[in-house]
């Protein structure tokens, strides 16, 4: 069966990546692409690397244009997608790459985003533990899916096994090297090349980053009670990619063997989340273009902490790949359709 697909926000980074991956999908056929200020232009004017879509013109992003497709991917700024989703028919499968349907906690939404609170949807990180199962279970047959924040999914995947196995204290510290494409096609300082090249620029320091409530929500699902999350991203000069170093204190008596067993068990059989052998550390280059999260984990005995390092491509496993993986599950298609575990290196 072929499903018709509309991609909204197709002129942006996330929408472009959804399109790049969907070009290799045998059952999802993109028939409509939309934008805002760039509506009316040919898609390839904005996305010259997407040659297979040369026939498509960007339309206005309205509920009327999007309705009538079997599947809609939204890659719009926060707030814009919530306004559209309220108007789309119930039977359309909608995957929102924005944050509008991620949070279950209305107070957290008000504090970190503001504006109208939208109902939470099935969260698109299938491999994350949730209760006795995984979030994958909630995606089966889902009509509405919230794709994750890229940083939030990386940090959550890296440390969740410690909570599921009851090995770590609720005191998580995450420091991330992130590429500027995570901010979208942003023409402001500090995303300009002249500000970014040859520099590493921290931002969102001191508890203000909006991915903190998303991580807390994920870790609670994985078994934490009231986790405290210190989260510090640092912009570095690589177009895409996230390398997150996540630490947490070990509970008394926990051994390195228990840690390794817990992390390997958490992701056993998962194609897209892989735990590396002891002493092997992930690199962003190994996951660029791939839907893969690579995790290295060890115990720092002197510090009494677990150290987990994860590499993801923010635009693939962090957004568009997660969105397509989740859509595949929702539609009953093989989960990895149109997705690869192989990166692009060097
Ligand atoms: N970049 C990333 O790594 C990640 C992004 N996301 C999320 O995906 C979404 C898109 O991000 P990204 O692609 O990076 O952003 P971009 O700025 O690159 O793209 C934004 C897109 O939305 C369109 N747009 C802008 N304003 C409006 C509006 N008011 N109504 C309708 N469409 C509008 C733009 O159209 P036009 O070009 O015509 O202005 C463009 O197509 C965001 O919610 C983001 O948080 C999530 C995870 C990671
Ligand atoms: C470099 C950079 O700015 N990255 C973004 C990641 C955004 C993201 O993951 O998307 P959502 O906004 O949909 O959550 C940030 O840290 O906010």
From TrEMBL:
Pathway(s) per entry: Amino-acid biosynthesis; L-arginine biosynthesis; N(2)-acetyl-L-ornithine from L-glutamate: step 3/4
Domain of life: Bacteria
Places the protein is found: Cytoplasm
InterPro entries: AGPR, AGPR_dimerisation_dom, AGPR_type-1, NAD(P)-bd_dom_sf, Semialdehyde_DH_NAD-bd
Keywords for this protein: Amino-acid biosynthesis, Arginine biosynthesis, Cytoplasm, NADP, Oxidoreductase
Predominant place of localization: cytoplasm
Domain Semialdehyde dehydrogenase NAD-binding positions: 4-136
Transmembrane segments: none
EC top class named in words: oxidoreductase
Catalytic activity reported: N-acetyl-L-glutamate 5-semialdehyde + phosphate + NADP(+) = N-acetyl-L-glutamyl 5-phosphate + NADPH + H(+)
Catalytic residue positions: 150
Record has Cytoplasm as a keyword: yes
EC numbers on record: 1.2.1.38
UniProt record similarity statement: Belongs to the NAGSA dehydrogenase family. Type 1 subfamily.
Function: Catalyzes the NADPH-dependent reduction of N-acetyl-5-glutamyl phosphate to yield N-acetyl-L-glutamate 5-semialdehyde.
Protein name: N-acetyl-gamma-glutamyl-phosphate reductase
Lineage, opening ranks: Bacteria, Bacillati, Actinomycetota, Actinomycetes, Micrococcales
Name of the gene encoding the protein in the UniProt record: argC
């Amino acid at each position: 069966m072929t499903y018709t697909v509309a991609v909204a926000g197709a002129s942006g980074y996330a929408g472009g990546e959804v399109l790049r991956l969907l070009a290799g999908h045998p059952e999802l056929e993109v028939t409509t692409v939309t934008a805002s200020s760039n509506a009316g232009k040919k898609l390839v004017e904005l996305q010259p690397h997407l040659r297979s879509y040369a026939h498509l013109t960007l339309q206005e992003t309205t509920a009327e244009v999007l309705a009538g497709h079997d599947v809609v991917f939204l890659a719009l700024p926060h707030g814009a997608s919530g306004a559209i989703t309220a108007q789309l028919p119930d039977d359309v499968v909608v995957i929102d790459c924005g944050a509008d349907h991620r949070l279950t906690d209305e107070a957290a939404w008000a504090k970190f985003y503001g504006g109208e609170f939208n109902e939470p949807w099935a969260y698109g990180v299938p491999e994350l533990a949730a209760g006795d199962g995984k979030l994958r279970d909630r995606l089966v047959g889902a009509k509405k899916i919230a794709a994750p924040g890229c940083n939030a999914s990386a940090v959550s995947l890296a440390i969740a096994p410690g909570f599921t196995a009851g090995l770590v204290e609720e005191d998580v510290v995450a420091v991330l090297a992130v590429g500027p494409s995570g901010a979208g096609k942003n023409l402001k300082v500090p995303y300009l090349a002249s500000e970014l090249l040859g520099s590493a620029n921290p931002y969102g320091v001191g508890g203000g980053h909006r991915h903190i409530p998303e991580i807390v929500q994920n870790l609670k699902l994985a078994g934490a009670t009231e986790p405290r999350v210190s989260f510090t991203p640092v912009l570095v000069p690589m177009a895409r990619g996230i390398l997150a170093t996540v630490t947490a204190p070990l509970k008394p008596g926990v051994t390195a063997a228990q840690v390794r067993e817990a992390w390997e068990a958490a992701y056993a059989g998962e194609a897209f989340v892989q735990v590396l052998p002891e002493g092997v550390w992930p690199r962003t280059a190994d996951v660029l273009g791939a839907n893969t999260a690579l995790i290295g984990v060890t115990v720092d005995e002197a510090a009494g902490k677990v150290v987990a390092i994860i590499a993801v491509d923010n635009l693939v496993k962090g957004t568009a790949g997660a969105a397509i993986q989740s859509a595949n599950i929702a539609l009953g298609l093989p989960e990895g359709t149109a997705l690869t575990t192989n990166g692009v290196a060097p």
